[in-house]
Each structure stands twice: as structure tokens, then as C-alpha cells.
Amino acid sequence: MMPPREIGIGVGGEFVARFVSYAPFDIDTVNLYWYYAYGTDSLLEKNVNLTVDGQTYPDLFWTQGNDGYDHLELDFLGSGIAQDSLGNITAGTVNFVAEFDLNANLYRWYAEGISSDAVAIYNAALTPSNSDEIYLIQT
Fold first, then answer.
1. 8 A C-beta contact, residue 106 and residue 22
2. Partner residues linked to 6 by β-bridges
3. pTM for the whole thing?
4. Integer angstrom CA distances of residue 38 from 33, 66, 74
5. Rounded to whole angstroms, what are the CA distances from 4 to 80, 96, 110, 121?
6. Residue 139 clears pLDDT 80, i.e. is over it
7. How far is the C-alpha of 14 from the C-alpha of 2, rounded, in Å?
């Protein structure tokens, strides 16, 4: 495993968000559609109150995918995350996201201190293009 690369994002000298990568990461290739195309399982866990770096998140939504080579899990922590009866994300805010390699049993990367609409992230995962993911990262 390579040493982590960390990018801190601040406004007015105050910490706002942090991205940490333990594996090579190319922002131009981010595409959540992989999880839609190769999805094997997902689950919304309400009121789990997971604490990461001193911050507690009430909700966890995770999704797993396996393309025969990569077996990955994407974890979203936040609040107010909700699904309809078909499993579509219908509400919520994501404040922490991480990608976990289930084969290697380690995190590939994570971002914390963010505030993104869970529905927008979900909708981005439904399109083959990654332009919506890039837009979400930039806003």
C-alpha cells in the first residue's frame, strides 16, 4: 500500500474538507456508474451513528460491486438518507464518502467534511458519463 496522499480544502484558513487517497487516483476517471453496472448488493442503515475522526454520522448507505477483477464497496455517511420501496435514494445529505477494496481489505480513498445531496449522487451513478460526478466534485 502506498503512503496516503492528502488534500485539505480550506476557506479563509479554516478546514472545510479533506480527501485522502491510499491508491492512485485520477479525478478525471471518477464514475459511480461502475457500481450501477456491476452492483451486487447495497443497504441503507439508519441511526447507526458511526463516528469517524470525531464526527458522528447517523446514516450509512453502502453499495458493493464486482466486475470479476475489482470487488469494491462505496460507503456514504450522512443524515436524512432515505430510499423508496424500489431502493432509489430519495433524500439526504452525504458528508463522508469512502471506497473500500474488499479483495485487499483496505480503503482506497475517502473524503470528509463535504456536504452533497444524496439524490444527486445517486442520480449521477445511473448515467454512464462521468460529467455529472465531476460536476458534483467541483461544487
1. yes
2. 20
3. 0.86
4. 8, 6, 12
5. 31, 17, 11, 25
6. no
7. 28
